[in-house]
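Methods: example folding runs. The two proteins below were folded one after another, and each record is reproduced exactly as written to the output file, sequence line first and structure-token line second.
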Amino acid sequence: MTNLHHLAQQAVRQALESGRTVGTAESLTAGMVSAVLADTPGASGMLQGGVVAYQNSVKQSVLNVPSALLASVGSVDGDVAGAMAAGARTVLGADVGLSTTGVAGPEGHDGKPVGTVYIGIATVAGTSAFEYVFDGNRAEIRGQACGAALERLLEALSS
């Protein structure tokens, strides 16, 4: 976990220095990203909040992910990650929205193999998504997804 805490410390510091706030929307990580950020001193100055959107119904109703998108591609998709991040940015009133969606296992989901993860980032400049394929058991994949999300957040805050 120390690497996660180190990344979180960097992200919190970068957000505070740049005066930007962050909101999260998490599916497979189910709150891990916001929890690791909140473990970091100073997080109250940058973390707006987080939405755990495990079910598609929550992705739709809370984060405004289009139902047609979910119906056509499933929940494990780059466009869905982007829409989740944009939704988090909007509903949480944050400068940066950060999302995670993916397959932690033990079985595939929506036609995607175990270990497939998408991280979404939304800022005033627009929305982007990043695809990853991780190896390991459920807990390891969730941990790697959390680390990837913190890395992408740090990148977004550094630009």
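Second run, written to the same file directly after the first:
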Amino acid sequence: MTAFARADRPLEGYGLVWEIKAVNHRYLEISPRLPDALRSLENAVRERCRKALARGKVEV
């Protein structure tokens, strides 16, 4: 199974775009791709995904 979601929103003069792509996978594998300025949020993104998902190969 494959899933894709995209949301965008203006935020204080910037555009914020969030995309999630997932394919069926035996284990949970999360690959966040954040700009360098937001790299410090990578662990928080992984934790949120772990709470919501049980398995799959996920690109955020």
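Comment on the second run: The two ends are 17 Å apart (CA to CA).
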